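Q: What does the predicted 3D structure of DEN5B protein look like?
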Amino acid sequence: VAGENFDQSPLRRTFKSKVLAHYPQNIEWNPFDQDAVNMLCMPKGLSFRTQVDNRDPQLHSFIITREDGSRTYGFVLTFYEEVTSKQICTAMQTLYQMHNAEQYGSVCASSSCSMDSLASSIDEGDATSLAKLQRYNSYDISRDTLYVSKCICLITPLPFMQACKKFLIQLYRAVTSQQPPPLPLESYIHNILYEVPLPPPGRSLKFYGVYEPIICQRPGPNELPLSDYPLREVFELLGLENLVQVFTCVLLEMQILLYSQ
């Protein structure tokens, strides 16, 4: 993997990601765009963590709009799994040794004082904070467990966000559970890809995930388009005043750009 942001410590850098597998291999009416899906699943690239970092799973969605105006919707669950490759762990250790040597060299070059006088100039509180910072931003192969980000993604012709979210969470639970689910994981993936149809317009559909049933509903021809995103989250993310301002801009047909990390 090729690291970027070399001024950052190795655990804060981003690395190049790639699609490990996708099923089915191709669909005639919806060809798989590997580069686009890879970039949209991991917009910041591959990232590493240790046991001291937050590794809670994250969910996000994306839209691919083609030249003919057709849309494909992607729903992604990003999680962290333990790195079992000794080679990758050793490479991370080497990156830290190089980074620390470079940082030490730049400190010495910019200061004529000795390390003893530098240490004596830092009060006890600062030294403790510095030690904590170094602990949370370091990697020791003999002491730390290395984790790497990984995604599972569902691509659908309609934005069934809640149904896809529930299925991905159940699939993730099955992958990380100590006890395997009743059927092999491939059975659940085959079921949602080949045996669960789109609900007819104006109807709802109930299908089985890994552990619990999942329901999705498709609006009829005379109903408002499908909007499966919870309005509560919009209020939480934007706040009331910002949401009113955005709504006003929509009514005035102004161009709107939302920028987010």
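A (community wiki): The structure tokens above were generated from the sequence. Residues 161 and 229 are 7 Å apart (CA to CA). The chain has three domains: 1-102+132-157, 160-228, 230-260.
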